[in-house]
Amino acid sequence: MDLATLARSASPDPAAVARHLDSLTHEARVFQTRALDRALFSPLFAAAASGAPVSLDDLVPPTAAPLAVRAFDGTNNLPAFRAFGKPMYRDRQGRVCGRNEQTWEGLTGPGYFSVRAHGGREVLFDYTELPTETPVGWPAVTSNARGLSYFVFREMTDVVRRLARDVVIGRAQRGGKELPQYFVLVRRP
After folding, report:
1. What is the tens place of the pLDDT at every residue in 75-109?
2. For residues 51 and 122, is the Cβ–Cβ distance under 8 A?
3. For residue 134, what are the CA distances in angstroms to 19, 67, 90, 174?
4. Which of 57, 102, 181, 184 minimizes the number of CB atoms within 10 Å of its CB?
């Protein structure tokens, strides 16, 4: 059994998906999420709506030192440039923030975002609310509404749900309108 097989079922069982992913090593989780067919992200996202809730503390524990980075390996359902990273941290006020690490970062900018609770079971990555401080060595915080960032991150939010203990799935929205763009993040150990 693999993640793709579970996702192909008529109605993926969120508990079975979580058990499967939790049983894998980090490397196997990344491999199976990166091997997902682009069409399988949507049913997994829908199934995650009835799975376990996700919180800010699941992404970056409240005990993490300020500006200490938690890294996530990501995969999206776009036609190209599918692999990326989303490192996150807590700022000195305890707010969870992060950015995108991708091939085209030099053109589109780092795509900074803040994270907040959303609907009690989800979190929202909000690209309209930028961090005020970042870890040492990170790129400067720049507006997501200018330059080429405008076409990628402008008015963007991602609704994020839990798939497993160390795995979340998200769906992009622009200006509150759902887009057919999904991603999976696997937290590094």
Report:
1. 999 988 899 999 999 999 999 999 999 877 766 77
2. no
3. 35, 7, 9, 25
4. 57
